[in-house]
Write a structure and sequence with these properties.
Blueprint lengths: L2 E8 L2 E7 L8 E10 L2 H9 L1 E2 L2 E2 L4 E2 L3 E9 L11 E4 L2 E2 L5 H4 L10 E2 L16 E5 L3 E3 L6 H4 L2 H14 L6 E5 L3 H12 L4 E6 L2 H10 L3 E4 L17 E6 L4 H10 E9 L10 H7 L2 E4 L6 H10 L9 E6 L3 H8 L7 E5 L1
Parallel strand pairs: 13-14, 13-16, 14-15, 16-17, 17-18, 19-20
Antiparallel strand pairs: 1-2, 1-6, 3-7, 3-11, 3-20, 4-5, 7-8, 8-12, 9-10
């Protein structure tokens, strides 16, 4: 019996196709995927056929923000049973390379990450009705936690890793630039880690309204309220930490103006090549730190969701059925009315 999957063939060429499901090995489980969140990288493949130097070279199943139910288990699986609801970590590091051995699995030299064209052949994604994964990738969802919430675990883990790159946030004033799904989740992660005050900037009143709802103390639309940033430049800056989630050069330039000396800029958004005011970086002794994917933070994300330490539900805009995948991607592309769009499989 076949299954349906969402396959990208090129820019704006998205198809729902029949594929053959796999059979789980001894340490694997078969998961009936129920919910899948559309990520920014999925949108880049959909809109442009890739991003930066990473381009589609063959058809690829999209998706990596997923949750579902265990449908079958391998002979050596002991921690899961049929019917368990799970959030699935899309990251499969090799565990043996130098970076894995050093505890930097997000930099694995032989990484298999669902729905990625970074290697050839591409790693097929998880927007499919049936997925085989390692038992170790699956994290049980607590009773009462919805599959929609569980599908947020992956992007939430991305922001938890970014916060870990920033260091301790207790009593810190934090600026988050860009309030799409990752920026919004960064606000929640920063609040959970003890940030004293969080300011959010964006160019969309819709996303800024959600940012306020989920915990931002101050919101500034930099397209219409740029003057509100001026007082924050006084005394060499107001913020201890900046989480840059837009990938926009202007956001970085503006943020550096209001970042304190020896402040930390965590670059989370992807935007290609851009210029930096080196004199400002040097004179303020700013530390710039990149943040890429996650590893142990996935388990933390699931635990925080399971324990109701965070509420991610305000970020869910809509759930659309699999046969409306194109409509779902179009809605997810419209930041004036959509934050996170999920697909029901």
């Amino acid at each position: 019996m076949g299954m349906k999957a969402i396959v990208i063939h090129g820019a704006l060429d998205l198809r729902v196709e029949e594929r053959a499901p796999a059979t789980p090995g001894p340490e694997e489980v078969s998961i009936a995927i129920r919910r899948g969140g559309i990520c920014g990288s999925d949108l880049h493949y959909y809109q442009h056929g890739g991003f930066g130097t990473i381009r589609l070279k063959e058809p690829m199943i999209l998706g990596h923000e997923i949750a579902g139910e265990v449908a079958a288990i391998g002979a050596k699986v002991t921690g899961l049973k049929v019917g368990d609801r799970v959030a699935v970590n899309p990251s499969r590091p090799c565990k043996v390379c130098a970076y894995c051995q050093a505890g930097m699995q997000n930099h694995c030299l032989d990484m298999l990450f669902y729905g990625s064209a970074m290697r050839m052949p591409h790693v097929q994604g998880a927007f499919r009705q049936s997925l085989v994964a390692l038992e170790s990738q699956c994290h049980i969802i607590a009773p009462g936690v919805s599959l929609e919430e569980a599908a947020f675990a992956e992007p939430f883990a991305v922001t938890l890793h970014a916060i870990s790159r920033a260091g301790a946030l207790t009593n810190k004033r934090v600026l988050v630039t860009g309030c799409g799904p990752i920026g919004a989740l960064a606000i929640i992660a920063a609040r959970a880690h003890g940030a004293r005050e969080i300011t959010a900037t964006d160019v969309s009143d819709y996303t800024l309204g959600l940012a306020r709802r989920i915990g931002a103390d101050r919101i500034i639309n930099v397209a219409t309220q740029m003057q509100e940033l001026a007082p924050l430049k006084a005394n060499k800056g107001a913020f201890d930490v900046m989480i840059e989630a837009s990938g926009n050069e202007q956001a970085i330039l503006t943020g550096l103006d209001v970042l304190k000396p020896r402040g930390i800029l965590v670059q989370l958004g992807l935007g290609g090549s851009m210029g930096l005011p080196q004199n400002l970086v040097v004179s303020k002794e700013v530390e710039i730190r990149g943040s890429f994917r996650f590893h142990e933070e996935f388990a933390l994300a699931v635990d925080l969701i399971n324990r109701r330490r965070v509420d991610l539900t305000p970020l869910l805009t809509k759930v659309l059925p699999l046969d409306q995948a194109e409509k779902a991607f179009q809605l997810a592309s419209d930041r004036s009315r959509a934050m996170k769009v999920q697909i029901a499989f």
